[in-house]
Specification:
The complex is a heterodimer of chains A (425) and B (579). With 425 residues, chain A is of the alpha/beta class. Chain A is built from 18 helices and twelve strands. Chain A has a domain at 132-268: Rossmann fold (3-Layer(aba) Sandwich). In chain A, the strands form three sheets. Chain A has a five-stranded parallel sheet with strand order 2-4-3-5-6, with helices on both faces. Helix content of chain B is 34%, strand content 16%. Chain B has a seven-stranded antiparallel sheet. A five-stranded antiparallel sheet of chain B has the order 5-6-10-8-9. In chain B, strands 1-2-4-3 form a four-stranded mixed sheet. In chain B, a hairpin with a 5-residue loop joins strand 8 (173-179) and strand 9. The interface between A and B is large, with 61 and 73 residues.
Chain lengths: 425, 579
């Protein structure tokens, strides 16, 4: 019996056995290979080389599952020097069609279960578990950004997330303004961390508890829609919660929407209009958790038959989900294109093979060298495409870009898309 | 079974670390474990018995490669160079070897004026092609795929349908920089006298012949650290644009200059006549017979999608066997739209004569320009290997297809995938002077014939039987294994090529430490084809090379035998279970 999205390493023997090191997890999609400079899709490999990429980790997972390896001095780094950005998974789907992301998540869980995880993760874990936010700050400071349009009751919940609540207040304030124009919203009473850092670092038991508390609060609020401007919260609510509940995203009793989807629809229907002119040549950065990691989750249970075929077939004759291409890619592009004076540039690595900013997977805490390398590469890419500004749709991407800029001579303004939308309104 | 646990000595490790720095050398098993091709999907005879290295080292330049090789000599450490680790031959074959991972050496230098690109050993095809097109140049992507290392691939197969027009890839090798197994640097062609790599011959005897060709040395005579490659002028004014994404991503063809044609042929004779006539008229950029199964695979969007069509269509495919294989032709207007129009009219005339019926096809890069989805060959069934790939005459190619098919269908289907009478992939090379033949088999590693390995075991048997069939038919075979081929077929060539090769090898690698071959091939032959040695005066490479060598003595002194290199299932298996 196979359960889609299982978190048990032993459930990925098929994947680990069939990885034949084709390196689609390492190289950029060859059709889109732009030049000899930006060739990798995997930041971990780009930084560390050797086999610190999905194929290496799958080989390690296989050896662990088959009990051929116990431990080694470098095993922890081998597993956790990874941003969990999912780029490898979309690469594999191009060729071997294996569940790489699930396998890597299960490998992390396997390591965590035996206590083998970076000690630098512990503070972040404790912050979420004890203080219910990733910074370990008091809960009462969560609304210090001063919402102005929030109602006591609404069909729409704005889930602010830790990043916008505590650090990137401009994102929260801009979203407050946008949602105010779109009929208002309510905050989730007693909002707390969605649990994303726990999931990304492989602490699934703690994540489960966080999830249960949030779902209970959402049920109590009775809203029909949850909107967020944070890509990490978006992925957590849209993908990880239903996955752990063994449900499909479409089975959730409420809709999970990223602010860019909402604004895109409103622009399309004429409910929002942009005014003024921005005069900017900007590069759009696809957050991993808005794009390839946030395809709607489709739950599936079944068996693997002859030739490795899944029975029943996953929903359609041709498997059409969990390939990274059905994430949220076009809404932010549509929004930026609708802004007068804005020239939208594509990074060389975009859509499902977008390069991660480095702010994910516990890397900034445990491997700041990897996080710094990833963001520096992305900023170098921004320079290469002639961007005068970088815009994304996740507070953590913005934080990463701003931190990465400090060490560079060539600096460009960094925006969250909500700031530009609010400005254009 | 004794466990192999002893590592490369501390002194040797330190010496390697002193060369590259601590960051670029490791003996951590969490990493070395992944330096085998593995999992269990690819495990046909090529890689069975691959060993994780004792140490992985990543040099940054030629000088470091030289120093590493000298350390390996000093400590009698067998080593295996790795480019992109695409080819299964890349995996080390002996315990405790040093993997020299050349991935950091991904240099790419251009001489646009003379249409030459010089690449490092870690460079792969897609960046080369991308940069070439920026410069108004192009090359081809081999069947191995865009992810294959350029140098590794140029030295071995580098087959592509575009070789029809561009010629076999090994002929496009120009200046070469080569680190011999003793660490000496040798520069071939014009690089011998200058830094300009524009010319590949000489000086004196052309030593490129020791390196290249599908019977070349597969890394046995040292490490190529730079290679200049002849490029070609791009036939379009600008780069081809990528369209769609994920599994569907491709380059869009401007059909006024580059165009695919698929013809259903009424008979095998018509197919052969058409292919011959196209090349005789010197039109086309690629001409091939595409097995039906690859058309189904190309149209499928998942494993389940493939089987939902391939299985039910059996009768349809068998009934139309003569017409189900497609003659696929690529025309390019190299100089103008008019050239494409002219070649199209010639092509249509030929097809009118032989009865080819034009079908539909997508006008985009179905591999070979920028991409080649070779890795995707695994997903329909789970296991895949090419049991034969050779350059022959067109007639030989068709004949080989028949013998291999007969062999396969009579004894090995299932667990091999039934291709309903398919006789292999044929593509014209060198404007029709030769043709390339490939026979691919697929199988389910978990076929219910018995336990897990039985599917693979049958594939293995079929592989060996195929070679035997080829030899018995007086046909050359390339796929007997990376090096055993010369031991097996050498005596048939009068002066024993195998012995001559070995003398050359001894001259440059007296310690036998540069990529020692997969002796397991010989062991497999012992088991599966015990009469071969007697029938063909076969001398194994173990006999020729390893016995008496210092590193081998070291291993045997530790009580390690070749059987230790075999996976546990191999010894545990019960032959009675295997059907």
């Amino acid at each position: 019996m196979i359960v889609e999205g299982s978190l048990e390493l032993k459930d990925y023997m098929y994947e680990m056995r069939r990885c034949m090191r084709c390196a689609s997890c390492k190289w950029l999609d060859h059709i889109y290979m732009p030049d000899n400079r930006f060739v990798y899709r995997c930041p971990s490999y780009g930084k560390y080389y050797f086999s610190k990429v999905a194929y290496g980790r799958l080989k390690l997972g296989l050896a662990l599952t088959e009990d051929r390896l116990k431990d080694s001095p470098g095993m922890k780094d081998m597993v956790f020097q990874c941003l969990m950005c999912g780029s490898c998974d979309s690469g594999c789907k191009r060729n071997l069609d294996l569940e790489i992301n699930y396998s890597l998540e299960a490998l992390r869980g396997h390591m965590v279960e035996s206590g083998r995880y970076p000690k630098q993760h512990q503070k972040l874990i404790d912050n979420v578990v004890k203080s219910k936010n990733r910074y370990g700050l008091p809960a009462k400071e969560r609304t210090a950004w001063k919402p102005t349009k929030a109602k006591k009751k609404s069909d729409t919940v704005y889930f602010v997330g830790c990043g916008a609540s505590y650090k990137e207040n401009k994102v929260a304030q801009a979203t407050d303004k946008i949602l105010g124009k779109l009929g208002g919203y309510m905050l989730l009473p007693g909002e707390q961390c969605c649990g994303h850092p726990l999931f990304a670092m492989g602490h699934y038991d703690a994540f489960q508890k966080q999830m249960e508390m949030n779902l209970k609060a959402m049920a109590k609020a009775g809203a029909k829609r949850l909107v967020t401007a944070c890509a990490e919260c978006y992925k957590t609510w849209k993908v990880d919660y239903p996955r752990l509940m063994k449900k499909s995203t479409s089975d959730l009793p409420f809709e999970v929407v990223h602010i860019t989807e909402l604004v895109d629809q409103a622009l399309d229907k004429g409910e929002l209009q942009f005014k003024g002119k921005l005069d900017m040549k900007l590069a759009w950065h696809d957050p991993c958790n808005l794009g390839r990691m946030s395809e709607p989750y489709t739950h599936w249970e079944g068996d693997r038959g002859q030739w490795g075929c899944l029975e029943p077939s996953k929903g359609f004759e041709a498997k059409q989900f969990n390939r990274g291409t059905a994430g949220t890619y076009e809404p932010p592009r549509n929004i930026l294109a609708a802004m007068e004076g804005v020239e939208v540039l594509e990074f060389k690595r975009h859509h499902e093979f977008s390069w991660c900013c480095g702010g994910h997977g516990g890397a900034p805490e445990a491997y700041p060298d990897l996080a710094a390398y990833a963001v520096d590469e992305r900023l170098e890419e921004a320079k290469a495409v002639g961007a005068e500004a970088v815009v994304s749709a996740c507070p953590y991407c913005k934080q990463q870009f701003e931190a990465g800029q400090k060490k560079r001579d060539h600096q460009v303004p960094v925006f969250d898309i909500t700031e530009l939308i609010a400005q254009a309104l | 079974m004794p466990k192999v646990t002893e590592k490369v000595s501390k002194a040797a490790y330190n010496a390697l670390q002193n060369i590259v720095g601590p960051e670029w050398v490791t003996d951590d098993v969490a990493i070395t474990e992944s330096y085998v091709k593995g999992g269990e999907i690819h495990d046909c005879i090529y890689q069975r018995g691959q060993q994780p290295p004792g140490v992985v080292v990543m040099p940054k330049d030629t000088e470091e490669v030289q120093k590493i090789v000298k350390v390996c000599m000093r400590y009698h450490l067998p080593y295996t160079p790795i480019g992109a680790f695409w080819g299964v031959h890349c995996g080390g074959k002996v315990p405790f070897h040093v993997s020299i991972d050349l991935s950091r050496m991904r240099s790419l230098e251009w001489d646009e004026k003379h249409m030459v690109a010089m690449v490092g050993p870690g460079q792969i095809h897609s960046p080369l092609q991308a940069e070439a097109q920026e410069r108004g140049l192009y090359t081809m992507t081999p069947g191995g795929g865009s992810q294959a290392a350029v140098i590794g691939n140029m030295l071995t197969c580098n087959y592509s349908p575009l070789n029809y027009r561009l010629g076999l890839a090994t002929r496009r090798i120009l200046g070469v920089e080569w680190v011999l197994p003793n660490g000496e640097l040798i520069r071939l062609g014009s690089l011998a006298t200058s830094d300009d790599p524009y010319w590949g011959e000489g000086p004196g005897p052309d030593l490129r012949g020791l390196l290249r060709g599908y019977l070349g040395w597969w890394g046995k005579v040292g490490i190529i650290t730079k290679m200049a490659i002849k490029m070609h002028p791009l036939f379009l004014p600008e780069r081809m644009k990528p369209v769609e994404r994920g599994m569907l991503s491709t380059l869009e063809f401007p059909d006024n200059r580059i165009k695919w044609y698929n013809f259903r042929m009424p008979s095998e004779d018509a197919m052969r006549d058409a292919m011959r006539e196209i090349s005789r008229c010197e039109i086309g950029a690629a001409v091939m017979r595409v097995p039906t199964i690859w058309r189904y695979r190309g149209k499928s969007r998942s494993r389940e999608d493939f089987w939902s069509k391939w299985g039910p269509d059996e009768k349809k495919i068998r009934d139309s066997r003569a017409t189900s294989s497609v003659c696929r032709v690529l025309l390019i207007g190299y100089t103008s739209e008019e050239q494409l129009q002219y070649e199209e009219s010639v092509l249509m005339g030929i097809m009118d004569e032989v009865g080819g019926e034009l079908g539909r096809t997508k006008q985009s890069d179905q591999s070979w320009i920028k991409n080649a989805d070779s890795a995707g060959m695994w997903w329909p069934a789970g296991g895949y290997v090419s049991v034969e790939f050779v350059v022959e005459t067109l007639e030989h190619s068709f004949a080989r297809g028949k013998t291999l098919l007969a062999e396969k269908e009579s004894k090995f289907t299932p667990p091999l995938v039934d291709e309903y009478g398919e006789e292999g992939w044929i593509q014209m090379t060198d404007m029709g002077h030769t043709s390339y033949f490939e026979f691919l088999i697929q199988w389910d590693p978990e076929h219910p014939l018995g336990k897990y390995e039985s599917g693979e075991y049958k594939a293995w048997e079929h592989w060996v039987a195929s070679q035997r069939t080829a030899i018995d038919h007086g046909q050359f075979t390339a796929n007997i294994g990376s090096l055993s081929v010369m031991g097996l077929t050498g005596p048939a060539f009068g002066p024993n090529y195998g012995v001559i090769y070995d003398k050359v090898r001894q001259a440059v690698d007296p310690l036998d430490i540069s990529n020692p071959p997969l002796d397991l091939h010989d062991r497999v032959i012992d088991e599966f084809a015990p009469k071969w040695k007697e029938d063909y005066d076969f001398q194994t490479w173990t006999d020729l090379m390893h016995d008496g060598k210092e590193w081998w003595k070291v291993l045997t002194s530790r009580g390690i035998e070749w059987k230790d290199c075999l996976p546990e299932w191999y010894w545990d298996r019960d032959d009675k279970e295997i059907g």
